[in-house]
Amino acid sequence: MTIRIAGIGISLPEKVVTNLDLEQHMDTSDEWIRERSGIGARRVGGITSEMGLEAATKAIENAGITPTDIEFVLLATCTPDQIFPATSTQIAHGLGITCGSMDINAACAGFAYGYAAAFGMMLSPGGPDRVLVIGSDAMSKIVDWTDRGTAILFGDGAGAAVLERHEQGDLLGQDFGVAGDLREILYCDHEDTIVMEGREVFKRAVRAVTQSVKNALDQAGLTSADIDVVLPHQANIRIIEAVCSRLDIPMEKTHNVLEHTGNTSAASIPLAMAAAQDAGALQPGTIVVMTGFGAGMAWGTVVVRW
Ligand code: COA
Asked: Would you call 199 exposed, middle or buried from its count of C-beta atoms within 10 A (0-12, 13-18, 19+)?
């Protein structure tokens, strides 16, 4: 008996900010943003707990269960509603449940961390039978809307997955790491906005993700050729292209939403997962790689059999 994803749900706030909207406020252009990042629009005005609750509710419905079937809630976020209580407690409250919950901050890599943590909890003695793993981030509230180096990239959103014990599905390999010495290239202090050295983050991200996917595949005893679906963190389409080219993975195997979401941090992998599900790409036995990176430079990859 191992663990599968039984249901997926997403949430995006209603307010859309297109590249053309940004052109009105800063020295940039739709053409530049699309060419350098692949992003065309992003959603803003989201609240982490509200988006997380909507995504969670949909994931529970999609799994064909009720909220009381959930035995633990893990929320990956770097934009909690408040310092405490943990935002996951508010999502649990919104669902009408009182099981354990906690927030995880691994920035944009958070969903991969949450997935592996949930898997470990569920396999431990007396562990939960069903865990809700949510990625929800309201990046628009920490973006400096006058900084064209960051404002063009980020957006708000949430995605959630219900993990449950089942004979279908497995975690085949995983790789996690951080480079805490690189704080200065991407950080956000309390009551402040995102500070980023874009070019440096780009280079580090490509290197870290490429190596991390290799490590996780090695552990799983698989090669790039065995991968059916890649759900990469959605930061910049050029990062995804560079990683795929280094790993010899056709871009068609990646599922991307960043054109209309921008970088939604911990939400981006489950948003991509929902897109892959809608495309019919996630079938029993499908080999799926989820890989993310972000501030801290935290990176994380899980290789999963669907
Ligand atoms: N519109 C127009 N011009 C812009 C611009 C914008 N929004 N932002 C920067 N520029 C200009 C720069 O000033 C620079 O001009 P110069 O050559 O006259 O100095 C030029 O465009 C190139 O800037 P550069 O920073 O080298 O561009 P880039 O190709 O590296 O693209 C990012 C910038 C931010 C899109 C890219 O570096 C990136 O995506 N990095 C990774 C960021 C990331 O993923 N962060 C989240 C991690 S989870």
From this structure: exposed
Taking the C-alpha atoms of residue 137 and residue 277, their distance in angstroms, rounded to an integer, is: 21
Residues 282 and 137 in one domain: no
**Host H or E run for residue 3:** strand 2-11
Q: Whose CA is nearest to atom 8 of ligand 1?
A: 149
Nearest Cα residue to 229 out of 171, 289, 305, 277: 289
Range of the domain at 211: 170-305
- The alpha carbon of 148 and the centre of ligand 1 are apart by a number of angstroms equal to 8
Burial class (CB in 10 A: 0-12, 13-18, 19+), 54: buried
pLDDT in tens, 193-221: 999 999 999 999 999 999 999 999 999 99
Specify whether 108 is catalytic.
Answer: yes
**Over 90: is that where the pLDDT of 52 sits?**
yes
Active-site residue, selected from the candidate residues 19, 215, 256, 263 = 263
